[in-house]
Specification:
heterodimer, A: 172 residues, mainly beta, six-stranded antiparallel sheet, three-stranded antiparallel sheet, B: 174 residues, Deoxyuridine 5'-Triphosphate Nucleotidohydrolase, Chain A, 2 helices, globular
Chain lengths: 172, 174
């Protein structure tokens, strides 16, 4: 079952959902809108390898915007620190962003219980598209769970800003 | 409702979920990590795809030492190393965030499974930048969801009968 906007707010007040900073204006009927933070990471190499650490460079999105191109993966982040120990978050872009051909996550929309971070966004543009710091870019929904809970304690816990893939650690 | 990792284990023990082979260390707080098998096929990227025609696919070398570099603009069909299914819960299949961060899609638009399926799932792989991957690696995650309503197991005749990467069967419907 999915939480309604007013339920997201009441569970936020009870401390079962973390969204910081939180604003009433960003509540939807059954989701909460989040904003794009100002930092982006791009991989330095064109060809990536899951077994190696793929180095990144970091850039600041100017107030005048930054153009994303289709041939690169950009790691962005939410301004909000978000998560829950009780409800499973699922993220996606806002439909206004999808209508411009911008993916804000690639394949992994499901967040682990207890993963409380500024979430990394995986930005991919179908056509060139400009993004701006602080823009409302995506939405998070919260879902009830069945069963006893063990919380996330993985490699991305405590992330601030965009966090590049740590999958190479699986091979060491 | 989404099953927690501990509940996935419970339902597996009760026979309500099948994941085989199963390994407890691949359990996440609310999903299970699957691996990619060594069966990898590529669609012809120069061809205009037509759902009315049978798709031609080519098996490509994919071994543990060399892996395979996936190229942007290409579509690859792979499969899970595990047989996964349930008659009682809805399965949803996606990639891991560690792979999404490298620009790898494991499914394209259709992450929702049907109740009654029990097979190795076909993966639809595509990349944003060239990416090297290896067979047997932990590549995606499946989650299980409680449905409401009377269950219909008619999907058993669909893609569920295949445990190798399987092309679109759209052309058979017309």
């Amino acid at each position: 079952m999915i939480l309604t906007g007013s339920k997201i707010k009441s569970e936020f007040k009870r401390g079962n959902i973390i969204i910081s900073p939180f604003s009433d204006d960003q509540i939807n009927p059954n989701s909460y809108d989040f904003r794009l933070g100002s930092k982006l990471k791009i991989y330095k190499n064109k060809t990536l390898d899951v077994k190696k650490y793929n180095p990144v460079e970091i850039l600041e999105i100017p107030k005048t915007g930054y153009t994303l191109s289709p041939d690169k993966i950009y790691l962005g982040h939410t301004i909000e620190t978000m998560g829950s120990k009780r409800f499973v978050p699922i993220i996606r872009g806002k439909s206004s962003i999808g209508r411009l051909g911008l993916f804000i996550h690639i394949t992994a929309d499901l967040i682990d219980l207890g993963s409380i971070n500024q979430w990394t966004l995986m930005l991919h543009a179908v056509q060139k598209v400009k993004v701006y710091p602080g823009m409302l870019i995506g939405q998070v929904t919260f879902w009830k769970v069945d069963g006893d809970i063990v919380l996330y304690s993985g490699k991305y816990q405590g992330s601030k800003g965009p966090h590049e893939s740590q999958i190479f650690k699986d091979f060491t | 409702m989404n099953l927690t990792g501990l509940q996935i284990i419970k339902e597996l023990e009760r026979g309500k979920i099948n994941i085989s082979p199963f390994n407890e260390k691949d359990i996440n707080p609310n999903s299970y990590n699957y691996h990619i098998s060594s069966d990898l096929y590529e669609l012809d990227h120069r061809k205009v795809l037509d759902p009315l025609e049978k798709t031609i696919i080519k098996k490509i070398p994919f071994n543990i030492n060399e892996g395979c570099i996936l190229q942007p603009g290409h579509i690859y069909l792979g499969s899970t190393a595990e047989v996964i299914g349930s008659d009682d819960y809805v399965v949803s299949l996606i990639g891991r965030s560690s792979l999404g961060r490298l620009g790898l899609f494991l499914q394209i638009t259709a992450d929702l499974g049907q109740i009654g399926t029990d097979h190795a799932w076909t993966l639809e792989l595509t990349v944003v930048q060239p990416l090297k991957i290896y067979p047997g690696m932990k590549i995606g995650q499946i989650s299980f969801w409680t449905p409401i309503g009377k269950k219909d197991l008619k999907y058993r005749g669909g893609y569920s009968q295949y445990s190798k990467p399987h092309i679109s069967d759209w052309y058979k419907k017309v």
